[in-house]
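Objective 1.3, modelling of assemblies. Example input:
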Amino acid sequence: MKTFNTMLKTELKLSLRGMDMLIFAICMPIVVLVILGIIYGDKPAYDGASYTFLEQSFGAIVSIAISAGGVMGLPLVISDYRGKKILKRLKVTPAQPVIILLVQITIYGLYALTSLVLLYVIASVFYGFRMQGDFLHFLLGWFLVLVSMFSIGVMVGGLAKNIKVAGILASLLYFPMLIFSGATLPYEVMPSAMQKAADLLPLTQGIKLLKATSLGLPVENVLPSIIVMGAIAGVCSFVSLRFFKWE
Amino acid sequence: MENVIEVRQLSKSYGDLTAVKNLSLSVKAGSVFGLLGANGAGKSTTVECILGTKKPDTGSISILDSSPIHDRKTLFEKVGVQFQEAHYQEYIQVGELCEVTSSLYKNPADYMDLLTQFGIADKIKSPVKELSGGQKQRLFIVLALIPNPQVVVLDELTTGLDARARRDVWQILRKLKDSGLTILLTSHFMDEVEVLCDTICILRKGETVFYGTVSEAIEKSPYEKLEDAYLWYSDEEDMTHEDL
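Predicted structure (tokens):
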């Protein structure tokens, strides 16, 4: 525990010094929220809707920090630490090398959580946001999306040959999901052909789940999304555990 | 316990390439053992097999009567390691690296004491990457000493240092040796080996071509300087001529 805490404190400082996650996981979602707030204000999602456009988008915006940390931050830091042989160095100490992975997962989890809290506060204070659904259901959904996205990240970081490959894979995962899964550009305004393509992205399914739970829509509607999220988490975790490259 | 590190009949190959062949060595408590050879002679592979980060094809290895693979957790409380290249995070500071390293061990030494002893206590807030080569190497010795080890393994400690910085590092190592620490190091600088090592093992293409003391190495060669003797033992071209 002493090792974990000391490492967490130091790695968190290093991550903040790096700035990337402050920008991509903390500032960017707020910017998207504010832009949508300025454009749509407290307009209903569609004529006669019981919730506002912003409330509909909340579930999507909270996924930005999750995917920034999961499919961008984690793969890069894991392959970087492997390349710098920090993982290997830990093998010749009494500590388990896996501890540094847990520390990184915790850090990106903290970014996602901080982003969630900030978005909730800003949306509530400035844009009249109300969580329509059950808060616990929403948090469970949020956690499932987090686990699923992070498992993709650990798998990519654990298997990529070097940081260059990890960087390319992370970009290929991150930017399409950021733009086409509805995290930034609202899914509802996409043409239906584009929506169909977007449905293939894992994050789109995650966002459907987050939207349904935050809007209090029946969970049965998003059962396929729950299954997809669970399956991704299961498969990626299994592959990571089985094939993770420590050096 | 007489021998701190005991290696018997170690062999390791990567595909068709034999990296180390039938290597045996023993490092006595309180001594400095030098593993020498040209780049690619098998020094690093040997060190990694000894430390358990590579699995030998055949042979047995024990450190302090323990297996580096099966007793990893307890053994590495007593073994300090410095790998060939430095391993640290991009933005990490000296003090942070020491703090994290300390947290890995049950009974770590006070790293402030060590930093003071090695003359880099004022660098505690500096990013590691901004240290000079000599300061970095001193820091890495500090890191290897944080566990309060009985034995340290140092892979090419002085490569890339200027003459002054290398002398400083030697002085430090001699002091450590005088205090009873057992040291296994790899090197290809003979001046350093002459000053520091009690026993040396010279590798050529993974095979042991000399094993003994520095003076024996000179005696058994046609030369009078260790540098010449070393080249005579380790030079691949010369040996090919002899084979003919």
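Chain B has a mean pLDDT of 89.
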